[in-house]
Amino acid sequence: MAPQRPKGAGALEKKTALSPAPVPPRSGELYAALDLGTNSCRMLIAQPKGNGFHVVDSFSKSVQLGAGLEKTGRLSRGSMTRTIQALRICQQKLRRNKVRRMRLVATEACRRALNAQDFLRRVQRETGLLLDIIKPQEEAQLAVISCAPLVSRNTENLLVVDIGGGSTELVWIDLTDVPRKDRPQSIMRLHNGFKQVMTDLPQARVVDWISVPLGVATLRDQFNDVEDDAARFALMSWFFEENLSDFAPYHDTQPHEKFQIVGTSGTVTTVAASHLGLKRYDRTKVDGLHMTSDQIDRVIRSYLALGPAGRRADPRIGQDRQALIMSGSAILQALMRCWPTDRLSVADRGLREGLLYAQMNADGVLEDGEF
User: Fold this and answer.
1) What is the structure's pLDDT at 13?
2) Positive or negative CA dihedral for 301, 304, 309, 312?
3) What ranges do the domains of the chain cover?
4) With 309 labelled, which of 129, 162, 191, 201 sits at a CA distance of 20 to 30 A?
């Protein structure tokens, strides 16, 4: 599949599950966001708090929904069964917390699978959950707004990168015409779409965005037949960079004043945790961390030195991530090689957080003010 970008951005659609009709939000209402990706099923249940939210409950499990999809074009019976088992746990959490406001979405694996609609009907029949397959455009929007609190007031050019299991979204944003104090909030307003609209509020300008149909799982599967570990890594990094050729900013290698890259994904947070030497993952130490290109390269070189067996045994990587860390690292290294910066802002946030912010913004339950 070719990389995608929108013909025009529109408002987010709203669908609910376990709730037959929309109801006005109450004070203290809980919201839920579920992200069913190519590799993982993840959910957050949260309560609005100030201009953000407080997480009440969460769920995350590697389900490998896209296993075998590259070869067959279909979701396998085993992957669908694993995923439905995880979704049953999510349904129990939603009922236990009496959540009425929710958005439950599926991404690249379901966008590509020939039997995706059959799978979603089975999900609804067996769990009562209604999942919405979102387009790459909306996935990119949600990744961007989730990272709004990490945008520096000094940033004039911003690249948000979301490395998923089946695809990678990149959004380049120009903030030069936005007053410094309004820059994070102008990013948040992009939940309504990437096209500029008539408004008196300061607007961030989306220069270009692209959805590359290569994520940590799909890129790994492309090069499974290459036996040499280092050669496979180099080929993956080169191949991913080749797929960026249609992204307009890729050809602009001039140094940018006050340029920031924000990376959100399991790959980015795993590399950050390895850099910090964490034996047990700690989100408070990872989210918002700044890493230099040299620090990222040192971690990746250490992964290559370990080899496949060493990476499987490395507690910094973890069993769920070890099979995907090198394809994710290949994407990350390619991105840092392409643009004139030596720093990356690490975001332990993504589609779920974007879904929560979008729902709460639409309901008007978030307070104004700085993040």
Assistant:
1) 38
2) positive
3) 31-134, 139-351
4) 162
Task: Give the span between the Cα atoms of 214 and 240, in whole angstroms.
Answer: 7
If one looks up domain 31-134 in CATH, what number appears?
Answer: 3.30.420.40
pLDDT computed for residue 5 by the predictor: 54
Cβ-proximal residues to 345 (8 Å cutoff; 6+ apart), any chain? 150, 260, 261, 262, 263, 288, 289, 290
Please list the ranges in the chain whose pLDDT falls under 50. Answer: 6-22, 371
What is the distance between the alpha carbons of residues 101 and 17, in angstroms, rounded to a whole number?
9
pLDDT at residue 14, rounded to an integer:
38
Residue 133: which residues within 8 A CB-CB, separation 6 or more? Answer: 105, 106, 107, 110, 111, 116, 120
Which region holds residue 101: left if phi is over 0, alpha if psi is between -120 and 50, else beta?
Answer: beta
User: Same CATH topology for 31-134 and 139-351?
Assistant: yes
Predicted confidence at residue 48, as pLDDT, reads 93
Query: How many distinct helices (H) and strands (E) make up the chain?
Result: 14, 11
pTM of the prediction? 0.84
- According to DSSP, the β-strands at 259-264 and 343-347 are parallel
CB 164 within 8 A of CB 215: yes
Under CATH, which number does the domain 139-351 receive? 3.30.420.150
